[in-house]
Amino acid sequence: MDYFTYCNWLRSGTVLLKISNGGQKLGLILTALMLYCGSLWFLSIALKYMRMNVAYANWSGLGLILLTFIQSLFFKKQLTF
Question: What residue spans define the domains of the chain?
Answer without folding.
Answer: 3-74
